[in-house]
């Protein structure tokens, strides 16, 4: 049968039309009934025929079996592999549509829980498929089955590794996501590397994915904990809202005990909280609750241990952030006035910043805030959460139930009292909700509102839902015990219920009455008599037992009835339930002791009956009772005290909610709900006696400098790219190797060019690094040592800077291809060659390379995969891409400012003209956050006057049409001697017009203008050689501008040429097969039109420069600039 | 966090399963089935069921149980909220969320779930982002897909996730720029036997359908914002502006979304638009009972009450009812004992009434509770709390959008005890 299907597939698949052979028909249930091939089927391809039958087979396997097809008689076990063969074939074709269909069917199988693991080899081959949907479905499959087929799963790893280097951040993120989801222990080192790498990615989205990957790796191999904690620590310092939630989640899963990691980030987390996505908010809030419990003093205690913190001013600016309509502020103000206790400002910050979240649409967030307030806020403030929780009662049933469960706890606060009516029960509520609401109502009942509550209960008692009625009766009982004033009312109400027709109601009432009577038995002889009469009718054992106990206990109040009851019970003793029998024995014993004259015989009769009962409890009890009450010859010591034993005054029972004693779990947690410790539950610690040092949370380092430090470290931890150099080298065509090498050369030299300007910032960085201490110190010194070495070999003053950058380069060529400086290149021309040799086999990268190559199963991937472009190019364009995508958060702007080392600064405002304010600017070539069409310009302010300059901002710009400016955030104050940096975006509209604007301080305005060189109006684009040629072909004629030039001798080596071109224009290098040709590609920022630059260098210095661009003006200007730069 | 998800229909078949961590055997659902059996009604299945190694958290909507399997401590509302979000997403994608629809679109469902959770932690739950990642199937697209072989997966990678406004798609374009806001208020009330209000509150929502090009920045202001007692916002609303100026300022998501929900609870503010006159009596020792209901308008601010539907769960003893309505149609289901009367519009001149007799089980004692009457109605062009939108302004884009505001009042959980 298998062959049947395979045959036509193999023959017909290559696309021959009408290849339906006779065997095909035999196998096809669609064709079979007709006997011969109907003419209209001829037009279809065999695969398509299969579609026709596929859905049928898919949804109802039986249906296809019922058809008159040949396999009808065979079991399903037979048809299953058949279909799989089918799918395999489809997966092996070149057609995406077939593959897609196959994958869809496989995914449908997985969804229904069918085993599809035998398809693994066929599916995994498609991991590199270009069709996005196929790819996604393959990922779904892989993640599901990789654990079962670990060896085969390794086939896919290299694809993801390649994806990790993709210039597109979303592809990098998704590669990391899938890679980390594959639970194959062997790839743990690779995952670790990838996570580390991604944690310092420029894109916050990739960093978020890295945070997600941490718990995955941890669950796979918990030995990695220490390394993962390092990554978490780094990510915790991240300032984007995107990352915050995910990293805290990772923190909670991997190292919740490392609360010290939070200190430095506490305030940041509090401030970011409102902008984090809902799910992150929940996790952060519950983590911060725990944190606050360890770090602050209990707000309910009365002693003042803390003094008013001097940092109060720190929050002054955010005062308006979360100002409730006066209430909260007032409460905050009133609180210190009443008590000497002063809340830690950080504690207050947390309470203030979480409060707005009560308004979230997500029930989970509201609940999280509620529990935070419950556990952390002073009693007076907890009330604010009531309103929000009541709102949730309108939500879905499940949410309602959770909220009610938690609301039960709040009885002490009384904060729900104003909302009493929101808990009234509707006849349409499900029973569970009704019972929970009842519980809350009972808790809320007090002296003042009890009449209303009781009247409401009155209605409930008549409900048709009997379970609910029973619960109501218990609730009434509880109200009666709690509130003495209404006890009699309740009791008489309950007694009325005794005449209810429903037995359950009566029984429940009896039980409750029994408990109530115990409180004041003397006054209620009548009720007991009434109850005694009920024994004839009530059949519910619990109720009967209760009545018997009552009569026995208070037999002196009903001396005449009691023996009669016992007589009746003795008669029916054998037919009673066990629990009733026990009470009969009890009653008999008590009566024997008080009224032995009348009941002696009855008692003995009952005890004899009990002696032969089937239940050993009853037999035991009977023997025991007999020994106690009937004085025997020998002992009698016990029987003398029998009366005391049996008729001791018993304390009245306390009617309690079945939901009590749950307050030792954190509110809103699963453990709290179940009242049992769930796996992974984090105990909420008790408040500390003494507050730990609050200064641990101080973060003094200005934001942007800290980040530069991070950046530094990031570069340190980037062996991944450099080993990829070694890895992909061999797979490249022979001539690409020198190209890639020259590429890296050129880059390093271009970076070295930045020397002078960066050296200063380097110094800064080092200082801050030292200040920060931490793990980077050793790296730092190592780096410095190397730097010194390099310095010796350098003669130029620029040497130092170069040293540092070449050092960076040897570790990773991926660092952003920042910018460069033409003026210095001459000095270095000779230089790079000397250290070039040193670069490639960097000692640091080689072990890692080995590790990875173990698993690099390049050969297994289908040949259709595009060859990897030289890694350096990837990284160059990657950096460019990253630039375009980061900075989603404006608060991040300063953080990425870091060393914009390679950029030439130009003067915007001289310090004389600016009255002490000197302003420089530089085109950082980093894309601008808010708007990708804007050129980002870094502005460097320095104050050389001796008074602080305040309120630096951009005044109203006067711009030509089309130009627009995104101002930098106002710099509040610049102290004398200080420098500050800001980023602004200018949309030049693809023209070199100057942008004129005013730079305002509080006192002065300065007119300034920025005119961009044409090369800054574009951003690099990553493309392959083929794409380049294709695009070039489209841009001919008018769009092609070329110029001949002669390259000076100094300008003939590869790297110099590349460096000069990239310095002049912000273009990305495109790989090129020919040695003497250089290609660059870019896109103008505003319109996104391509700019392609080709430099054809012939021997003896002659060269031709060609620029292809839709924007002819730009093309012409660019040619001019580049020729100028090259021939200088 | 969330380990696996099982979708179970009301007859107890697991028709979809998805795992985000290692695979959890579907036999874990047996604990769920046990609980389901014990609960008798689907609504009474506890949302959290502990099992020896896992915890099952479930929501029940559209006759489907969505059962999430978790292994460690997690706030239960977190999971439940997420499950509801999943249901909402399905509804948003397919129009309805039902078993056959999910089965038909199993691949899309799978893809969506894949994007929504990563390792059990929610990743992309905004419908705008999801729709960019995976396009919802439409009839047209299905046709096109079958012809051209293209797919539902967005060929462009979404950038919304990365932007400062993660809820909004980028590059939105419309020829007609429109923004519609529906102010819908629901009255929850319990009216007692004598017709006095026991409890009443108004739950309002503002649902928006915004189809605007580019990145519009809207502000919506109310005539009387102080009315709103308690509000919850879509994440797009700038909280600070609301706190300081009582103005809703936001960059809207594309398409339909719930901008705001609010609560007006001060009792005296709640006008009850209808009254119900009823006389339902059972007599002991008689097989017949009398039944009479009249519905009339009370405080309607001059608007007509439409879509009135009266329903009541009769006691078990009622065998049948023979009733005559003065308008509309009525049905009584002798099995579920559910009486429903579709009244339609209320004409103040001629009040609708439903009269007749109930036949009771002979010999059975009279039911001790009169049935509760549930009421549904609608009033167009009126927000019963008196909330009014003052104006809607748009910044950030140049065109003039079409703006529309609609008010409506509905009965929420409106019960009359008799």
Automatic annotation (TrEMBL), chain A:
Segments of this protein annotated with the region Disordered: 1-82, 709-850
Domain AP-3 complex subunit beta C-terminal: 847-993
GO CC field: AP-3 adaptor complex; axon cytoplasm; clathrin-coated vesicle membrane; Golgi apparatus; presynapse
InterPro entries, sorted: AP3_beta, AP3B1/2_C, AP3B_C, AP_beta, ARM-like, ARM-type_fold, Clathrin/coatomer_adapt-like_N, Clathrin_app_Ig-like_sf
Keyword list, A-Z: Cytoplasmic vesicle, Golgi apparatus, Membrane, Phosphoprotein, Protein transport, Transport
One BP annotation, GO: intracellular protein transport
Keyword Repeat: no
Location relative to the cell: Cytoplasmic vesicle, Clathrin-coated vesicle membrane; Golgi apparatus
Compositional bias (Basic and acidic residues): 709-720
Biased composition (Acidic residues): 734-743, 759-771, 818-830
Biased composition (Low complexity): 744-758, 840-850
Free-text function comment from the UniProt entry: Subunit of non-clathrin- and clathrin-associated adaptor protein complex 3 (AP-3) that plays a role in protein sorting in the late-Golgi/trans-Golgi network (TGN) and/or endosomes. The AP complexes mediate both the recruitment of clathrin to membranes and the recognition of sorting signals within the cytosolic tails of transmembrane cargo molecules. AP-3 appears to be involved in the sorting of a subset of transmembrane proteins targeted to lysosomes and lysosome-related organelles.
Family designation: Belongs to the adaptor complexes large subunit family.
UniProt protein name: AP-3 complex subunit beta
Source organism of the structure: Oryctolagus cuniculus
From TrEMBL, chain B:
Listed PROSITE patterns: CLAT_ADAPTOR_M_1 (PS00990), CLAT_ADAPTOR_M_2 (PS00991), MHD (PS51072)
One Pfam family matching this protein: Adap_comp_sub
CDD domains given in the database record: AP3_Mu_N
GO cellular component terms given for this protein: clathrin adaptor complex; cytoplasmic vesicle membrane; Golgi apparatus
Signal peptide as annotated in the record: none
GO biological process, one term: vesicle-mediated transport
Entry-linked SUPFAM superfamilies: Second domain of Mu2 adaptin subunit (ap50) of ap2 adaptor, SNARE-like
Keywords of this entry: Cytoplasmic vesicle, Golgi apparatus, Membrane, Protein transport, Transport
The MHD domain, residue ranges: 176-417
Superkingdom: Eukaryota
Subcellular location: Golgi apparatus; Cytoplasmic vesicle membrane
Its membrane topology: Peripheral membrane protein
Cited InterPro entries: Adaptor_comp_med_subunit (IPR050431), AP2_Mu_C_sf (IPR036168), AP_mu_sigma_su (IPR022775), Clathrin_mu (IPR001392), Clathrin_mu_CS (IPR018240), Longin-like_dom_sf (IPR011012), MHD (IPR028565)
Membership in a protein family: Belongs to the adaptor complexes medium subunit family.
Protein name listed in UniProt: AP-3 complex subunit mu-2
Organism this protein belongs to: Oryctolagus cuniculus
Gene expressing this chain: AP3M2
């Amino acid at each position: 049968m298998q062959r049947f299907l395979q045959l036509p597939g193999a023959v017909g698949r290559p696309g021959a039309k009408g290849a339906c052979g006779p065997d095909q028909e035999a196998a096809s249930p669609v064709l079979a009934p007709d006997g011969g091939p109907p003419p209209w089927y001829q037009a279809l391809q065999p695969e398509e025929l299969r579609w026709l039958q596929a859905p049928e087979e898919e949804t109802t396997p039986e249906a296809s079996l019922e058809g008159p097809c040949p396999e009808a008689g065979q079991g399903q076990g037979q048809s299953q592999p058949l279909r799989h063969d089918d799918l395999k074939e489809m997966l092996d074709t070149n057609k995406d549509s077939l593959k897609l269909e196959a994958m869809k069917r496989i995914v449908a199988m997985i969804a229904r829980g069918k085993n599809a693991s035998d398809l693994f080899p066929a599916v995994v081959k498609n991991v590199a498929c270009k069709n996005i949907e196929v790819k996604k479905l393959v990922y779904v499959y892989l993640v599901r089955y990789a654990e079962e087929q670990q060896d085969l799963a390794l086939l896919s790893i290299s694809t993801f590794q390649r994806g990790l280097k993709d210039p597109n951040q979303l592809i990098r993120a998704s590669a990391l996501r899938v890679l980390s989801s594959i639970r194959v222990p062997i790839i743990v080192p690779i995952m670790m590397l990838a996570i580390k790498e991604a944690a310092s990615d420029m894109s916050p989205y990739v960093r978020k994915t890295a945070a997600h990957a941490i718990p995955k790796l941890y669950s796979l191999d918990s030995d990695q904990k220490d390394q993962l904690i390092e990554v978490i620590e780094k990510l915790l310092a991240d300032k984007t809202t995107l990352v915050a939630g995910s990293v805290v989640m990772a923190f909670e899963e991997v190292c919740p005990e490392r609360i010290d990691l939070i200190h430095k980030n506490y305030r940041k987390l509090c401030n970011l909280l409102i902008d984090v996505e809902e799910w992150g908010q929940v996790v952060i809030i519950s983590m911060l609750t725990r944190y606050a419990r360890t770090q602050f003093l209990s707000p309910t205690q009365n002693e003042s241990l803390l003094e008013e913190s001097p940092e109060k001013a720190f929050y002054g600016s955010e005062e308006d952030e979360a100002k409730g309509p006066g209430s909260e502020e007032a409460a905050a103000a009133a609180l210190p006035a009443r008590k000497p206790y002063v809340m830690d400002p950080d504690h207050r910050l947390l309470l203030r910043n979480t409060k707005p979240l009560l308004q979230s649409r997500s029930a989970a967030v509201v609940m999280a805030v509620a529990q935070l307030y419950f556990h952390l806020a002073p009693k007076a403030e907890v009330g604010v959460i009531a309103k929000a929780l009541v709102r949730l009662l309108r939500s879905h049933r499940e949410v309602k139930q959770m909220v009610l469960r938690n609301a039960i706890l709040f009885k002490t606060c009384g904060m729900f009292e104003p909302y009493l009516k929101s808990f009234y029960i509707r006849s349409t509520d499900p029973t569970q909700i009704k019972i929970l609401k009842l519980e809350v109502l009972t808790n809320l009942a007090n002296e003042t509102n009890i009449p209303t509550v009781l009247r409401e209960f009155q209605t409930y008692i008549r409900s048709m839902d009997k379970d609910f009625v029973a619960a109501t009766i218990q609730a009434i009982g509880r109200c009666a015990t709690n509130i003495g004033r209404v006890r009699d009312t309740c009791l008489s109400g309950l007694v009325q219920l005794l005449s209810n027709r429903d037995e359950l109601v009566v029984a429940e009432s009896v039980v409750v009455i029994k408990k109530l009577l115990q409180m004041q038995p003397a006054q209620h002889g009548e009720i007991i008599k009434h109850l005694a009469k009920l024994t004839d009718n009530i059949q519910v054992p619990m109720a009967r037992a209760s009545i018997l106990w009552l009569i026995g206990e208070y037999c002196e109040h009903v001396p005449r009835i009691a023996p009669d009851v016992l007589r009746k019970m003795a008669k029916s003793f054998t037919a009673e339930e066990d629990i009733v029998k026990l009470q009969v024995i009890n009653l008999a014993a008590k009566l024997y002791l008080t009224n032995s004259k009348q009941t002696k015989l009855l008692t003995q009769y009952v005890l004899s009956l009990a002696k032969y009962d089937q239940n050993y409890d009853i037999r035991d009890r009977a023997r025991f009772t007999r020994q106690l009450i009937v004085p025997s010859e020998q002992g009698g010591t016990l029987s003398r005290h029998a009366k005391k034993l049996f008729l001791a005054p018993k304390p009245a029972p306390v009617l309690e909610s079945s939901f009590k004693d749950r307050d030792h779990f954190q509110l809103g947690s699963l453990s709290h709900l179940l009242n049992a410790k769930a796996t992974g539950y984090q105990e909420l610690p008790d408040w500390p006696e003494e507050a730990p040092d609050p200064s641990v949370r101080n973060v003094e380092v200005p934001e942007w400098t800290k980040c530069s430090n991070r950046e530094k470290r990031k570069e340190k931890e980037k062996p991944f790219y450099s080993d990829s150099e070694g890895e992909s080298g061999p797979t490249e065509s022979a001539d690409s190797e020198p190209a890639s090498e020259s590429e890296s050369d050129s880059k390093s030299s271009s970076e070295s060019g930045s020397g002078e300007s960066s050296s200063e910032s380097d110094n800064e960085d080092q200082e801050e690094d030292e200040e920060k201490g931490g793990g980077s110190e050793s790296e730092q010194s190592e780096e410095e040592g190397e730097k010194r070495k390099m310095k010796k070999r350098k003669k130029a003053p620029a040497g130092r800077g170069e040293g540092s950058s070449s050092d960076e380069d040897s570790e990773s060529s991926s660092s952003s291809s920042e910018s460069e400086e033409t003026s210095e290149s001459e000095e270095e021309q000779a230089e790079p060659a000397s250290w070039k040799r040193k670069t490639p086999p960097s000692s640091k990268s080689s072990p890692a390379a080995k590790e990875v190559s173990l698993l690099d199963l390049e050969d297994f991937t289908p040949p259709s995969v595009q060859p990897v472009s030289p890694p350096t190019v990837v990284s160059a364009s990657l950096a460019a891409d990253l630039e375009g995508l980061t900075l989603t958060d404006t608060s991040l702007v300063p953080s990425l400012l870091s060393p914009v080392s390679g950029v030439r600064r130009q003067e915007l405002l001289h310090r004389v003209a600016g009255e002490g304010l000197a302003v420089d600017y530089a085109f950082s070539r980093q894309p601008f956050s808010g708007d990708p069409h804007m050129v980002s310009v870094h502005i460097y302010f320095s104050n050389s006057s001796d008074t602080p300059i305040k309120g630096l901002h951009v005044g109203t710009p006067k711009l030509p049409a089309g130009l627009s400016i995104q101002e930098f955030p106002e710099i509040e104050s610049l102290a004398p001697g200080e420098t500050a940096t800001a980023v602004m975006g200018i949309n030049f509209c693809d023209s070199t017009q100057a942008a004129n604007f005013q730079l305002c301080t509080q006192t002065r305005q300065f007119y300034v203008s920025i005119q961009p060189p044409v090369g800054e109006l574009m951003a690099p684009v990553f493309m392959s050689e083929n794409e380049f040629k294709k695009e070039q072909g489209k841009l001919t004629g008018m769009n092609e501008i070329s110029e001949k030039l002669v390259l000076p001798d100094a300008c003939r080596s590869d790297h110099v040429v590349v460096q000069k071109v990239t310095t002049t224009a912000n273009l990305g290098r495109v790989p090129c097969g020919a040695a003497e040709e250089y290609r660059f590609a870019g896109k103008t920022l505003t319109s996104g039109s391509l700019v392609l630059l080709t430099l054809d260098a012939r021997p003896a210095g002659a060269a031709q420069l060609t620029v292809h661009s839709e924007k002819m003006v730009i093309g012409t200007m660019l040619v001019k600039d580049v020729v100028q730069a090259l021939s200088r | 966090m969330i380990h696996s998800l099982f979708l179970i229909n009301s007859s107890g078949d697991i028709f979809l399963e998805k795992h985000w961590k290692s695979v959890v055997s579907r036999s874990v659902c047996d604990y769920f089935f046990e609980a389901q059996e014990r609960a008798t009604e689907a609504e009474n299945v506890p949302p959290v069921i502990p099992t020896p190694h896992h915890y099952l958290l479930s929501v029940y909507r559209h006759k489907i149980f969505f059962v999430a399997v978790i292994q460690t401590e997690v706030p239960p509302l977190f999971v439940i909220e997420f499950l509801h979000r999943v249901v909402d997403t399905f509804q948003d994608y397919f129009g309805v969320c039902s078993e056959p629809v999910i089965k038909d679109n199993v691949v899309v469902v799978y893809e969506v779930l894949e994007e929504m959770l990563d390792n059990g932690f929610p990743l992309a739950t905004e419908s705008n982002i999801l729709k960019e990642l995976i396009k919802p199937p439409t009839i047209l697209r299905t046709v096109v897909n079958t012809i051209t072989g293209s797919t539902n997966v967005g060929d462009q990678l979404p950038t919304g996730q990365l932007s400062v406004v993660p809820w909004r798609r980028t590059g939105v374009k419309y020829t007609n720029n429109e923004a519609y806001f529906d102010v819908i208020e629901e009255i929850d009330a319990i009216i007692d036997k004598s017709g006095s209000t026991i409890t009443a509150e108004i739950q309002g929502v503002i649902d928006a359908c915004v189809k605007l090009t580019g990145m519009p920045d809207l502000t919506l202001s109310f005539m009387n914002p102080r009315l709103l007692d308690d509000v919850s916002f879509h994440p797009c609303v700038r909280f600070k502006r609301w706190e300081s100026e009582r103005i809703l300022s936001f960059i809207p998501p594309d398409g339909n979304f719930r901008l705001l929900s609010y609560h007006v609870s001060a009792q005296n503010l709640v006008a009850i638009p209808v009254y119900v006159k009823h006389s339902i009596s059972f007599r002991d020792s008689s097989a017949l009972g009398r039944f009479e209901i009249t519905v009339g308008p009370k405080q309607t601010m001059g608007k007509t009450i439409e879509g009135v539907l009266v329903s009541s769960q009769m006691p078990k003893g009622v065998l049948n009812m023979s009733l005559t309505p003065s308008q509309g149609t009525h049905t009584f289901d002798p099995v579920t004992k559910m009486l429903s009367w579709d009244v339609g519009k209320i004409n103040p001149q001629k009040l609708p009434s439903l009269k007749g007799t109930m036949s009771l089980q002979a010999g059975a004692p009279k039911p001790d509770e009169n049935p509760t009457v549930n009421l549904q109605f609608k009033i167009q062009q009126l927000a019963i709390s008196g909330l009014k939108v003052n104006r809607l302004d748009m910044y950030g884009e140049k065109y003039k959008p079409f703006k529309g505001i609609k008010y409506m009042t509905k009965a929420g959980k409106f019960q009359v005890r008799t």
